[in-house]
Amino acid sequence: MYDMGTRKRALALIAQGRSLNSVSKEMRISRHAITCWLSRPEPLLRTPPCVRCQETPDIPENREAYSYLLGLYLGDGYIISKPRQHYLMVSCTASWPGLVDAAEEAMRRVLPGPSVTRNQRAGCIDVKSFTRHWPCLFPQHGPGKKHERRVSLEPWQQGIVETHPWEFIRGLIHSDGCRITNWTTRLVGGERKRYEYPRYFFTNKSDDIRGLFTRTLTTVGVEWTTLARGCDPFNISIARKSSVALMDAHVGPKY
C-alpha cells in the first residue's frame, strides 16, 4: 500500500535517529509497516558521518553557524541520545519567530543532512534536528542538567569561539539573555526626572557557562558586572553605554 519513495523516506528518518512513533505520526504510516520494513535485509539509508567521526577528526566547516549554535545549546538546548532516538532540541519562545528561524538555519548549516522539525508547545516552539551525530559535535552532552555538571569547551571548540566570539555571544543571549530598558530618577535643577537606559542581561545557573560567557565578553571589549539574586550570582549585566553599543552592533534584541 506504500510506494518505494515513501518506504525509503521513512527508513531514512529512522536511520537518522527518529522514533517509530514520530515517523508514523508525521508520515501517517502504521508502526507495523515501518517495523516490517526494518526487519527486511536491505540496508538502511544512513546519514553521512560527521566531521568528528572521521579517522582524523576535523572541525565543522561552517564555524560561524557552529559558534552560534553552541551558544544556543549551552543555553536552552539539550540532546536526546537513545538506541532508537537521537536529536538536538533548542526551545524558543514562540513570540520570537526570528529566533526560531535562526535556530533552524544554524542546525541546517552545521549538519545539512538530518531532518529538522518544529514542534509547537504552549508559548514555545521546539526546533529539533534528528541524527546520532550531535553528541559528537557537542561533547558537553551528558547525564543530568547542565548546571549540575562540569561544562568546558574542548580545544577545537575554544578555537572556533575565539575566531567567532560574537556568534557565540549572540547564541547565549538569544537563549538565556535579553535586552531591556531600565529606568531611574535624577534630580535636575531641583526637579526629579525619569532617566531610561538600555541594558543586557544573561541569566544561567551554571558557573561554567556564565564563565564562558563573561570571558568571551572580555575578549571583545565588553564590560560586565555580576548581579546576585539573593545569594546566587546568576545574572550578568551589561549596562555601560559603550558596551551596550557594542552589543547592539553585534547582537541586538531578540526578534
Structure description:
This protein has 255 residues and is an alpha+beta fold. It folds into three domains: 4-39; 51-145, Homing endonucleases (Endonuclease I-creI); 174-250, Endonuclease I-creI (Roll). Helix content is 41%, strand content 26%. It has ten helices and eight strands. The chain has helices at 4-15, 20-27, 31-39, 63-76, 97-110, 134-137, 155-163, 165-176, 207-219, 241-250, and strands at 77-82, 85-93, 115-121, 124-130, 177-188, 191-203, 225-229, 232-238. The protein has a four-stranded antiparallel sheet with strand order 1-2-4-3. A four-stranded antiparallel sheet has the order 5-6-8-7. α4 (63-76) packs across α7, α4 (63-76) packs parallel to α8 (165-176) and α8 packs across α9. The relative contact order is 0.12.
